[in-house]
Amino acid sequence: MKRVLTLVLPILLAAFALVACGNDSDDSSASSESEHGGDHMMTDMPSMSMPMSMPAGAREIVISDFKYTLPGTFAPGEQVTVRNDDTAEHTVTADTGDLFDVEVEPGATATFTVPGQPGTFAFHCTYHPNMVGTLEVR
């Protein structure tokens, strides 16, 4: 019996760890409208939770099916809400520097401020590197 547990226990722990990480998709189409590579650095910036109801006219990035959906371009310094419709935790993390990094629990929302200068900013999910997108600030 002890030998069976020694063999089976590591397999069960590995399976549990994979399930706990969420449903990582190997599908390369599981990205936003633009795909960019880049350094994947994580910063320790706090995330801010918001209620699920949004004020009229609020713009948000939606995460669903391990993809980002963006509402278009953003104004410099604009506050943006990120809504996570998935069952796994995700981030919106700038590929370079510490311009923005926000974690969003499953079914929750968070906000961050887009960079104050115009430009195109590649981002990714630190938990799911195949999730990438581009934030356009004009």
Structure, described:
With 138 residues, this protein is of the alpha+beta class. It has 1 helix and 9 strands. It has one helix at residues 2-20; strands spanning 48-49, 60-64, 67-69, 79-84, 90-94, 101-104, 109-113, 119-124, 132-137. A 5-stranded mixed sheet has the order 1-7-4-2-3, with no helix packed on it. The protein has a 4-stranded antiparallel sheet with strand order 6-5-8-9, with no helix packed on it. Strand 5 (90-94) and strand 6 (101-104) form a beta hairpin. The longest helix has 19 residues, at 2-20. The N and C termini lie far apart (65 Å). The model is unreliable at 1-57 (pLDDT under 50).
Topology, element by element:
Blueprint: H1 2-20, E1 48-49, E2 60-64, E3 67-69, E4 79-84, E5 90-94, E6 101-104, E7 109-113, E8 119-124, E9 132-137
Parallel strand pairs: 2-4
Antiparallel strand pairs: 1-7, 2-3, 4-7, 5-6, 5-8, 8-9
Q: How far do the termini sit from each other?
A: 65 Å
Task: Estimate the mean pLDDT confidence.
Answer: 74
Arrangement of strands in the largest sheet: 1-7-4-2-3
- β-sheet strand percentage: 25-35%
**How many DSSP-defined strands?**
9
The assigned structural class equals: alpha+beta
> Share of helix among residues?
10-25%
Largest sheet: 5 strands, mixed
**Spans with pLDDT under 50 lasting ≥5 residues?**
1-57
- Order of helix and strand elements from N to C terminus: HEEEEEEEEE
Number of helices: 1
CA-based gyration radius: 17 Å
C-alpha geometry = globular
